[in-house]
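Appendix B, Record 12. Input sequence as logged:
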Amino acid sequence: MAKQQDTNTSKSRVIGICVAVVMAALVGVIVYLLVTRTTGIKEEPRNVVVTQNNVEKVLDNLEKMEEIESVAPGYYTVTMNPTWHFKTGSEASYDAVVKNVEANTNDVFFDIVLEEDENKVLYKSPVIPRGGELKDIALEEQLSAGTYPCVVIYHLIDEDQNTLSTLRVTLSIIVEG
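Logged structural output:
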């Protein structure tokens, strides 16, 4: 009888170990599924803060966005280079270009102000229609030689030229001589 009780105890231990192994495996599978599963909901992309360190990447992304068939109302894509060079403070820039891509829903205009004094307006652009571009930009305020940190304030406008939204982008202006 003692031998039978030892056999039953051994069988109980084996069954207990098997149950524990199966439960551990199930817990492992459940944890794996919870960790690796996705919700299926795609996050909406967010805007990126433009800095001197990421401006080239952001500009590349903006150029890719030009290929999009249309831009949602209230949003717009403007392409520009982050540094403008002027031979003198009274001449037009030889490399400044601003584009309002065709895919946009509205026209834009922009103002350039000094970063340190936003009341000092250096340039007020004309309206740039969808698909248009502006080159040969000459500042309205003559600057002496140097580097000027600036802010470009874009205005998305309706047909009556009322501002729908604005976008602020940094710009470096370099006057060479």
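The chain has a mean pLDDT of 84.
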